[in-house]
């Protein structure tokens, strides 16, 4: 089975100027009536007028929850994944094929340049939630691929300000036959590979750090992992309203550090209730950590959450202390 991840990362890279401004139909035109594709449901679980699937993609019976056929999802998406303890099937898509830098630091997958897709059984087959970082010249092809697959784009935003080249983050979700959803994910990967094959970039730089991980653990009040030159912590949100999503489909706050004990960079995202937003912004700015994005993601019914992206450069102790003050405004989970 071929894997598009390998194809995307193996594209030869040899120099690239500033990305051109994408045309509205860049990469792939949007077809009419996308919700009819392979029985994917177009909105909030309601079937489209043309929800009959082809013979090889039969919809799940009404009211039934069938275990996911993960092998079929992998074959349809051309991506490998893993079943997590709560039953969610999750695929991770690092964007190590992009060379992105900001303030003299390389933005690597562990600094936030990684996408993911999660599948969970549903009465209609599966629910899908995903996130994909894309370069500016990939954006319209990716959005077209999602629209053509009947997947809903739920947010579009940046995690950085001033990075080169510009990177945007596309959130999407869907409900329907899991193989049809996975084919939509494959279409997104193919749209990315087409652009990178025609406009390759230089190989991504590696992050290098000599941070004191134990010191950061102490300051943040949570244990992190130091791998590939990046120290990273994840902080699950203790919110009973999110329990039905499953732990690995629920939002998780994170922060990632790289650099030295004298000068480091931190990137991350905090998941907040609306009432927590202003205190968290105040805590970040007191620590001179930049607020670089505020958004929410879901077009479906559920608790409203706000996502705050941040970036800061300074002494790692000061950055970690500022993030800890922001985290103190959040409920913390296991």
What would you say this structure looks like, in words?
This protein is α+β, with helices and mostly antiparallel strands. It folds into two domains: 62-205, Alpha-Beta Plaits (2-Layer Sandwich); 213-327, Alpha-Beta Plaits (2-Layer Sandwich), CATH 3.30.70. The chain has helices spanning 4-10, 70-77, 139-148, 178-198, 213-220, 277-286, 316-327, and strands at residues 82-83, 89-94, 101-102, 105-106, 114-122, 125-135, 152-157, 167-176, 225-227, 230-236, 252-259, 264-272, 290-295, 306-314. The strands form three sheets. It has a six-stranded antiparallel beta sheet, covered by helices on one side. A six-stranded antiparallel beta sheet has the order 9-10-11-12-14-13, covered by helices on one side. The chain has a two-stranded antiparallel sheet with strand order 3-4. α1 packs parallel to α4 (178-198) and α6 runs antiparallel to α7. The relative contact order is 0.16. Residues 1-28 and 32-62 have low confidence and may be disordered.
């Amino acid at each position: 089975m071929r894997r598009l991840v390998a194809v995307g990362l193996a594209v030869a890279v040899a120099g690239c100027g500033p990305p051109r401004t994408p045309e509205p139909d860049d990469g792939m035109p949007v077809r009419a009536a996308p919700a009819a594709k392979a029985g994917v449901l177009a909105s909030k679980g309601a079937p489209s007028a043309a929800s009959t699937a082809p013979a090889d993609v039969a919809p799940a019976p009404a009211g039934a929850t069938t275990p996911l056929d993960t092998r079929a999802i992998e074959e349809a998406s051309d991506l490998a994944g893993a079943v997590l303890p709560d039953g969610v099937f999750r695929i991770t898509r690092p964007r190590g094929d992009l060379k992105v830098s900001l303030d003299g630091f390389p933005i690597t997958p562990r600094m936030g340049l990684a996408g993911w897709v999660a599948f969970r059984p549903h009465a209609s087959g599966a629910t899908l939630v995903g996130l994909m970082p894309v370069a500016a010249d990939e954006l319209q092809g990716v959005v077209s691929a999602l629209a053509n697959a009947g997947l809903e784009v739920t947010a579009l935003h940046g995690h950085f300000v001033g990075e080169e080249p510009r990177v945007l983050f596309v959130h999407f979700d869907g409900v329907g036959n899991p193989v049809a959803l996975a084919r939509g994910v494959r279409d997104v990967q193919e749209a990315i590979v087409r652009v990178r094959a025609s406009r390759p970039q230089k190989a991504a730089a590696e992050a290098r750090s000599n941070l004191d991980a134990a010191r950061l653990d102490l300051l943040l009040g949570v244990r992190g992992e130091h791998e590939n030159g990046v120290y990273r912590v994840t902080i699950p949100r203790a919110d009973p309203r999110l329990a039905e999503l499953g732990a690995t489909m629920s939002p998780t706050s994170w922060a990632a550090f790289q650099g030295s004990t004298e000068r480091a960079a931190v990137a991350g995202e905090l998941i907040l209730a609306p009432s927590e937003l202003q205190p968290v912004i105040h805590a970040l700015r007191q620590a001179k950590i930049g607020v670089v994005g505020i958004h929410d993601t879901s077009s479906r019914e559920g608790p409203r959450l706000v996502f705050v992206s941040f970036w800061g450069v300074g002494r790692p102790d000061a950055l970690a202390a500022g993030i800890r003050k922001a985290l103190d405004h959040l409920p913390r989970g296991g």
